[in-house]
Structure formats: C-alpha cells, structure tokens
Write a structure and sequence with these properties.
Blueprint: H1 2-20, H2 23-41, H3 45-60
C-alpha cells in the first residue's frame, strides 16, 4: 500500500509543489518537516513509528497483505 502512495507523491504531488514554490521554499519546507518530526517523535522518528505500526499489525493479524489482496 505504501508503494502506490509514494509513487503518487513522486509523480504528482512533489512536481506540482516544486512548480508552485521556489527551490529555497521547497528546501525550507523539507527542513521544517524534519524538525517537526524530530520534535514530536525523536531521532529516527519515522523509522520508530514504522516499526511500531508493523508490531501492531503483527499483533492484530494484518501484517501479511497477501491475505487481503484479491487474486
């Protein structure tokens, strides 16, 4: 599920954003998002949250997407 989301960001969202704001503004947005992530979740916040979600998925039995993907 993440791959289609990331692909859409890379092909639709970010190119349009880059057309809308200057290179400096785009970089500043990225830096601001990094700072917010570290403030909210600590060092390697994304990695920690992804691992936590994976742990929850294992516990509730939804980690194997093949079980839920139509053939």
């Amino acid at each position: 599920m993440y791959r289609p989301h990331a692909a859409r960001e890379d092909t639709d969202l970010f190119p349009k954003l880059r057309d809308t704001v200057s290179a400096h503004e785009f970089d500043a947005i990225g830096e601001d998002m990094e700072k917010q992530e570290q403030r909210k979740f600590g060092h390697d916040g994304f990695g920690k949250m992804a691992a936590h979600v994976a742990e929850i998925e294992q516990k509730v039995g939804i980690a194997d997407l093949r079980k839920f993907t139509p053939a």
